[in-house]
Design brief:
By secondary structure, the chain is an alpha/beta fold. Helix content is about 45%, strand content about 15%. The strands form 4 sheets. Strands 1, 2, 3, 4, 5, 6, 7, 12, 13, 14, 15 and 16 form a 12-stranded mixed sheet that branches. A 4-stranded antiparallel sheet has the order 18-17-19-20, with no helix packed on it. Helix 15 crosses helix 18. The longest helix has 30 residues. The N and C termini lie far apart (about 60 Å). It binds zinc ion. Zinc ion binds next to loops.
Length: about 600
């Protein structure tokens, strides 16, 4: 065992001193601040302390695996490994959560939990037999599974199982006869999962769940069987979903509950929404200040279960050993390309007229990144083989169903550099469609070549948007703002209307983005129900697959009440000592807990009237 050198010890002590002096946990982080840590504690500091070391070890592990994919023979050493290191160093690519040894994010099946409880994950609970044991061990299970992943955990089936145990215990009318008990159980789960976990450096779990309209639900769960051979009661589940959304909305007036991130999936066809009642319900919730993501599709071919991910369903057949196949998905790893830098490098070599040579230039980088991702997957496969990631060995997750994800950041800034106007216009939309289309084609080809599933997404880039802008400025590249946009539009642009945004996120662009991106509508006031319905129709009309609304909620520092409306004065106690909450990108948080750079960006966001 080697001891640290004196210089290294001094360096870490200096970090501790800096951390103590930082404004909040996000700002104190030197490598990769966690977006859902709220308070600075010794646990958050400890989690930060050795991140640098982990990054270096992770990098070396991937570089070693890259030898397997290297086909350059007239080079001393491994060409790909050297490229990987240099692409990172040159900030062309960014490897997400390189500070963690774990795979990225997962939408898991809960079926093994029904059969074996948490014991298959090394826990102590047997298979749940009633609602209390289900809810109690569910919280433990999610913490156990989350310890296998760096990012979000989605449990798409949570409400379906909840409904099953509630019916079993209280009968079919449980929402009416036992409302109090049902709310208590929901409260136990939701508050339990919003707790900062000391084992995770005081982060809570990134927990996501889904609700479905009737046709979506039927497609996802109609062929599902519980271990006692009964099928889900979809009518009852439908009612529970509505009950949950209403309860969660009201609960968020008491506490700024970040999790679960909720996505509502709705099926559309040429005539409109197949389940209009559910659309109306969602619109009503939205008008009352509930914030959730909406995923819309013409077929139940994909699932949006993380705060941004849209994943094609690999296989939606039910199996008695693994449960519903369609819910298992996620992203094993994400590597993001800084498009602003790439485009400027290209222009330095050629010119601003992006001809076929640009396609070739970009394809070269995409193909390298695909190999970097496959090498990372090899590292994870070693861990799985050794039993180090029990979520996989116990059947909650399957690495071959997880995507390898290429992230995109700085694309709006690249367009600006090229002289395009970022906004709802033909030239810019064609640029987006072309660049994203290149990724999509390469992902398709790579599936054929390697049998690996790749996708591309506009990453939220909560920290990366700030870093890329800073790195590019330092390099002397053109970077017009301190934080690159996470959207197709410019977040500070007052001229980009709601209609413009929907038209930007339309079929012709979004169809090229196989991993998705959420349109965030920042609104100055809550829409009324009719306006909210109109938003749904606008989304359908334009083919916007994934979107949400954000209205700053008002948090009173005196009486503690949370109001979904943006106000200067608390409507309950009249105090002017108020704070605001909104999404950093995906996650709802108090703005003063954002990192300094994100607070600055948040203050520039334009909220449409
Ligand atoms: Zn108040």
């Amino acid at each position: 065992m080697l001891g640290l050198r004196e210089k290294q010890v001094d360096d870490r002590l200096a970090f501790i001193k800096d951390y103590i002096g930082a404004d909040n946990a996000a700002t104190g982080s030197e490598v990769d601040s966690n977006s859902n840590v709220t308070h600075k504690t010794v646990a958050t500091m400890e989690a930060e302390l050795y991140k640098f070391y982990t990054v270096q070890l992770n990098r070396k592990l991937v570089m070693d695996k890259l030898k397997k994919f290297d086909d350059i023979t007239d080079y001393d050493g491994c060409y790909l490994a050297d490229m990987y290191a240099s692409d990172i160093k040159n900030h062309i690519i960014y490897v997400h959560d390189e500070t963690s040894l774990k795979p990225y994010c997962a939408s898991i099946t809960l079926y093994p939990f029904l059969l074996e409880g948490t014991k298959c994950m090394g826990g102590v609970s047997n298979a749940p037999t009633n609602l209390q044991s289900f809810c109690g061990s569910f919280v433990n299970l999610v913490y156990q599974v989350a310890s296998n992943f760096a990012g979000a955990i989605a449990t798409v089936e949570f409400l379906m199982y909840f409904d099953y145990f509630a019916r079993k215990q209280y009968g079919k009318e449980y929402m009416r006869t036992n409302e109090k008990e049902i709310k208590q159980e929901l409260q136990g789960v939701v508050y339990g999962l919003n707790q900062p976990a000391s084992a995770r450096g005081d982060q809570s779990v990134f927990w996501n769940i889904s609700v479905f309209d009737k046709p979506y639900m039927a497609e996802m769960f109609d062929n599902f069987y519980f271990p006692d051979d009964t099928k889900p009661d979809l009518e009852s589940l439908y009612e529970l979903q509505k009950f949950f959304m209403e309860w969660f909305r009201l609960e968020r007036k008491k506490e700024l509950l970040t999790f679960p991130v909720l996505t509502a999936s709705l099926l559309t066809d040429e005539k409109g929404f197949v389940d209009k009642e559910f659309r109306n319900f969602c619109a009503d919730q939205m008008s009352k200040g509930h914030s959730f993501f909406i995923y819309m599709s013409d077929s139940v071919d994909s699932l949006a279960s993380c705060c941004r991910l849209r994943n094609e369903l690999a296989d939606n057949t039910f199996s008695y050993s693994l449960g519903a196949g369609g819910v298992v998905t996620g992203s094993a790893q994400v590597i993001t390309l800084n498009m602003n830098r790439l485009v400027q490098y290209y222009v330095q070599l050629h010119d601003k007229n992006l001809d076929y040579r640009f396609d070739e230039f970009l394809i070269g980088f995409i193909q390298d990144v695909q190999k970097y991702l496959m090498a990372t997957k090899e590292v994870y496969k070693d861990y799985i083989k050794a039993g180090l990631l029990p979520a996989y060995t116990a059947g909650f997750m399957d690495i071959d169903k997880q995507f390898l994800t290429l992230g995109v950041n700085g694309l709006a800034e690249a367009a600006e550099f090229l002289g395009l106007t970022v906004g709802n216009n033909k030239r810019y939309k064609a640029f987006l469609a072309r660049v994203l289309g290149i990724f999509k084609d390469e992902n398709k080809k790579a599936l054929e070549t390697y049998g690996c599933r790749f996708n591309t997404e506009f990453v939220p880039a909560e920290n990366l948007g700030v870093k890329n802008a800073k790195w590019d400025k330092e390099e002397g590249l053109e970077a017009k703002r301190d934080c690159y946009n996470s959207y197709f539009y410019l977040v500070e642009d007052p001229d980009c209307s709601i209609l413009d945004k929907f038209e930007l996120y339309s079929h012709d662009v979004c169809d090229n983005l196989d991993g998705g991106s959420a349109l965030h509508l920042n609104l100055e006031q809550l829409p009324d129900k009719a306006q909210a319905v109109r938003l749904f129709e606008l989304a359908r009309w334009n083919g916007t697959p994934y979107w949400t609304t954000n209205v700053l909620c008002t948090i009173c520092n005196k009486c503690g009440r949370i109001d979904p409306v943006t106000r200067k004065v608390c409507k309950h106690c009249g105090s002017t000592d108020v704070d605001y909450g909104t999404r950093v990108i995906g996650y709802l948080k108090r703005v003063t807990n954002f990192s300094d750079a994100r607070q600055l960006e948040a203050s520039r966001r334009f909220y449409t009237k």
